[in-house]
Amino acid sequence: MDKTTKRHCTGEVGGGSGGEKGGGSSDGDFEPSMGRFTDHITIDVLEKMDLASLCTAACVSPTFNSAVAYRLPFVSSSDLSGFYLDEETLKHVVCRVPGAKSLTIECLRMRNDSSIINILGDHIKVLSLLKCTHLSYDILRAIGERCPNLRSLLIEFAGCDAPELFKRKLAEMLQKVPLLESLSITIRGTSRDVFDVRPLGQFLPPSLKKLKLQQTDARLFVLWLDAVRKIPLFNLRSLSLVLDFISDDLLITVVHSLPHLVELDLEDRPFTLSSVGDLTNIGLQALKFCECLIALSIVRSKMNCPASFTRVDNKGMFHVSEGCKRLESVKLGGFAKVTEAGYSSILYSCRNLKKFEVLTSPLLSDSVIDNMTGVARSVVELRLSSCSLLTSEALEHLSSFRKLEVLDTSGCERIGDQAPFYISKVTTLTRLNLAKARITDVGLALLGAGDLPIVQLCIRKCEKVTDKGIKSLFHADRKICKTLSVLDIGYIPKITDAAIFTIATAAKALTDLSLRFCNGVTDAAVQMLMDRPNHNSSQLQMLDLCSCRGLSAEAIMLPLPLYAFHRLRWLGIGLTDIVAKRGIFSAICEARPRLVLCGVCCDFGCCDGWQWHNVR
């Protein structure tokens, strides 16, 4: 590993002096120009940077190097999400920022509890532990003992089928964190570790304002909430649950027990299609008692079976619109009998709406956006996913959305080439998802002509797109060439090496690229991404090659050059011949020890499957 890369990964800032030129001083002109700025100005600039940016700045010049060395001990927040560090590197980084009150850590490479326990201390107030594949429930006890001043905890476990152990360790922790205000615990990959929260009522800190649990049993949660609402000072403001079933009883109990809720997020994942005891209009009517509610999300997932809310119709949405007029964020999914009339009533009533999302709504038609004229000036995010009746005409008046930054029509298979033309008029758009749309190369050309500052673009499963469309998207050095960071062109059969060459040449800010199930991509494209140390492609941090059947076992040639993939943090090679050749697989891991190599079919960063497998 070269010295610059090592400093980026570990936070080392002491190697830039002693005659060694910084990254920006190849001709010796950069460093003298830094002398024009006083130390006060330099440090003031660095105070506005996050940890990753500070480490990058330290490599620019000896002046920045020294200033960062001074600044690091005073960094109050350390966000290491997206950096898959091992125990030794993590300890080194944390030692460099001893004053950090907030820590966010990706735990995919942490092999045991001690990896985290050794960096805990009473200075930590906000702790987020993501993708804890190997951590046991005992880490909860350790957090309670070592972080008595903790205000916020987010932790994601890979379950170990030990619900009693979990309850005991959680209770031990809660008794020792009296200042806790926010608690978010997720358990994935187990059928038995659901939250039986009833025994925990006596240990809940009275300061708790935000609670997120995934996954819990709805019936047991109702019983628990009936008990804990009698605790003095118990006053949750934000509740997020993933449950087995959403019922009227659950919703009514929640709103009567927690009348001061500001945020309510409910998702269920039923295992049967039975509607007995299901949510009805009556349950939604109870929401009127939450007068402070500004964010509402109620979603039925199809993860376990193709279920939907069959006992809620437009009348239920009328109840929401009448009782929750202060809503600024709305997310509704799985309401099979609600039409645009129901959704429009919410749009008419909630005049401060900033986020509006509808999922899997088979009766939602194009006119819903026509009815959004009253809130068009305030909406920042608009997501209409898997709505089978939605067509391109729904987006005709999209230009009236003056603040729109996020648009998602993924799964709307009747969206065609006219849609990109309408979208191209929204000059504020930065994130766009057109997955499964019927757009062609013509549509991409129209989108490119709009010259939008798009940062994230997904055209996954747009099967009519070819290399020509990709070329037209990036034509003539448009804004997207400078702004695009994340691109997903997976599952497009006509994408070949030519498209990859275009992307790598034109997209100057690209960090994440998904080519999964693009069988036309061959070894030549991968070699091109590896062989250009000073090219745009050298900035890649995540690359998904899952099931690219055109790749041979030798697609990644060994030994790896020092510069090849030197910034890459995650590489997906599931269902390729590279995985089958264990020698190559192991050699890549050895050559890039900080690279997470995923040999199964996870999406970026193993965000959807980390609980099921070990990463290398």
Could you report the average pLDDT, rounded to the nearest whole number?
Answer: 87
Helix content: 25-40%
CATH superfamily of the domain at 51-216: Ribonuclease Inhibitor
State the shape: globular
Major β-sheet profile: 20 strands, parallel
Strand content: 15-25%
- Low-confidence parts: 1-28
CATH topology of the domain at 51-216: Leucine-rich repeat, LRR (right-handed beta-alpha superhelix)
The count of DSSP E runs of length 2 or more, i.e. the number of strands, is 20
Helix run count: 23
Q: For the terminal residues, how far apart are their CA atoms?
A: 18 Å
CATH architecture of the domain at 51-216: Alpha-Beta Horseshoe
Describe the overall structure.
The chain is an alpha/beta fold and about 625 residues long. Among the domains are: about 50-215, Ribonuclease Inhibitor (Leucine-rich repeat, LRR (right-handed beta-alpha superhelix), Alpha-Beta Horseshoe); about 510-615. It is built from 23 helices and 20 strands. The chain has a 20-stranded parallel beta sheet. Helix 8 runs parallel beside helix 9. The longest helix is centred in the N-terminal third of the chain and has 12 residues, at about 165-175. The chain is globular. The model is unreliable at about 1-30 (pLDDT under 50). Pfam families: DUF7885, F-box. This is F-box domain-containing protein.
